[in-house]
Design brief:
alpha+beta; Thrombin, subunit H; six-stranded antiparallel barrel; elongated
């Protein structure tokens, strides 16, 4: 090969390297210029062969870091330990208490109740024996005044006791409650009174009777009837135990329930108390009120 041809080949390589490394070569081709060191004897004319290749880009091996595959797995958040919301009782103030009464037998408090007239109160029939003697009982109002009981009418069907006083209460601060004017349904918001120690109340809801069935499962003397409903008590046992037989339950300021059995409580459990349904017992109550009016 003549020196002129060799020189032309070298210039061609340089020209291609200059032009094709920029914009004139399509993206799918790359210029590869390989200069290999000559290890043999230098020829007499001093020219060493230069080999030049133009190869498609896919045939050129390049070193590159492997790309990490995106993590398609969803991160699972650690579940926080479940904390049950505590149902807490509140001080009764400013809730009205001027209808509350305590039932005393031989000067000992046995139950509570609510006044529905100035001469008639309602409590639980489970506070009394089958044939109670009225002379053994007294009612104490919120002002600590004692009132003699003239007659006790029991209804085992409604689990209610109607207590007639000998005389009307004349204290103007005593305000009897109006009776319930609507049917009781689950999830209604109510005020549950707790008078065992001192007067408190609990804003709570009506729940299914199954809750009370679970609460009273170990008590063979408790019977749940269609004339009762269940209200959720506090899930803190110390608070839950502050209800008393005869404690009233209010819905929209009206007397809708009387506690039948008192509490049955376990910590961190959905405790329930059973109440006599005043709305269903209206006929019984109205009959008693008429007999009181006649005396």
């Amino acid at each position: 090969m003549s020196p002129t041809v060799k020189l032309f080949g070298l210039l061609l390589i340089l020209q291609l390297s200059n032009c094709c490394g920029k914009k004139k070569v399509q993206n799918n081709f790359k210029l590869s210029v390989n200069f290999q060191p000559y290890k043999g004897k230098l020829p007499a004319n001093g020219v060493v062969r230069i080999v030049e290749y133009i190869l498609p880009a896919k045939h050129i091996k390049t070193k590159h870091k492997p790309t990490k595959k995106p993590n398609t797995k969803k991160c699972k958040r650690k579940k926080k330990p479940c904390r049950k919301k505590q149902i807490q009782l509140r001080s009764v103030s400013p809730h009205p208490t001027n209808f509350l009464i305590k039932v005393l037998q031989n000067k000992q408090i046995i139950c509570s109740g609510a006044l529905i007239t100035t001469k008639l109160a309602l409590s639980s029939s489970n506070c009394f024996s089958k044939n109670p003697s009225p002379s053994q009982f007294q009612l104490q109002d919120i002002n600590k005044e004692l009132h003699a009981v003239d007659q006790i009418v029991l209804s085992s069907f409604y689990d209610l006791a109607a207590l007639m006083l000998t005389n009307h209460i004349k204290d103007s601060s005593i305000q009897p409650l109006k009776l319930c004017q609507q049917a009781i349904e689950a999830k209604q918001n109510v005020s549950l009174y707790m008078t065992k120690v001192r007067s408190n109340f609990l804003r709570t809801q009506i729940v299914e009777n199954a809750v009370c069935k679970q609460s009273f499962m170990q008590n063979e003397f408790v019977f749940i009837t269609s004339n009762m409903f269940c209200a959720q008590n506090s899930n803190v046992a110390v608070d839950c135990e502050k209800t008393l037989k005869g404690d009233p339950l209010l819905l929209n300021g009206q007397l809708c329930g009387i506690n039948v059995y008192g509490p049955s409580c376990v910590d961190n459990a959905p405790n329930g108390d059973l109440y006599a349904n005043i709305f269903k017992a209206r006929d019984f109550i109205e009959d008693v009120k008429r007999s009181v009016a006649e005396t």
